[in-house]
């Protein structure tokens, strides 16, 4: 092979090698460009979806049909029959409702597409007059109790529903008393408060009165007595040996305030009577 031929072949080989390297570089650049262009798209895909707006509550008037089971009820509203699951806040209220009664409800849909009942209130009868009787439902030591209660009216312009285990009478000016027929030491004093009553003074006097019994404790009104006692200015108790006492200042839906003093000496029926008292007071309304 001549020197001239060898040189031609060397130059040709070098050109092929450079061409291959150039192709590899272009491929690398192309792949890098594709990768970079894909990264924003991937980052966009990885962005979290905005959180869903919480479901809005719906408020309607309707007719309470009744309970389906321990966790749900039926209410007829706007021409439809609604199946509503019970929240813990409404169970006691539902337990005191009469089938067929007019109600105001607030409900909304949860994340499982179930309608949850948030609030339910019994409406006044169409005549504007309270019914002559009502079934009170309450629980004693885990056992459900149902008792018929008769409409009971006070000369102080309020009414409530009373079961036959108790008597009711005026005690002194602006105060009434309801007591257990079988054991009169079990009683509740009911005192509607005037608009100019000093709540702070009443609170101080209530604490002083209970300190004579024992250590004064503030308690949760809803947990102790039910949803009707969600709005209270005062809910305190004290106990000693075989005696327990409550003093409560409740604000009614009407805005009126009522003071209750509840005496519960030990008796075989103390637990039952206490729950009966809360159930009866839960029905109290001003005329």
Structure notes:
By secondary structure, the chain is an alpha+beta fold. It has five helices and 16 strands. It has a seven-stranded antiparallel sheet, sandwiched between helices. Strand 13 and strand 14 form a beta hairpin. The longest helix has 44 residues. The radius of gyration is 37 Å and the shape is globular.
User: Termini separation (Å)?
Assistant: 127 Å
- Mean pLDDT comes to 84
Parts with pLDDT < 50 across at least 5 consecutive residues: none
Oligomer: single chain
Largest sheet: 7 strands, antiparallel
How large is the radius of gyration?
A: 37 Å
Structural class: alpha+beta
Instruction: Give the total of beta strands.
Output: 16
- Helix coverage percent: 25-40%
**Share of residues in strands:** 35-45%
Order of helices and strands: HEEEHEEEEEEEEHEHEEEHE
Q: Name the strands of the widest sheet in spatial order.
A: 9-10-11-15-14-13-12
Q: What's the helix count?
A: 5
Q: What's the shape?
A: globular
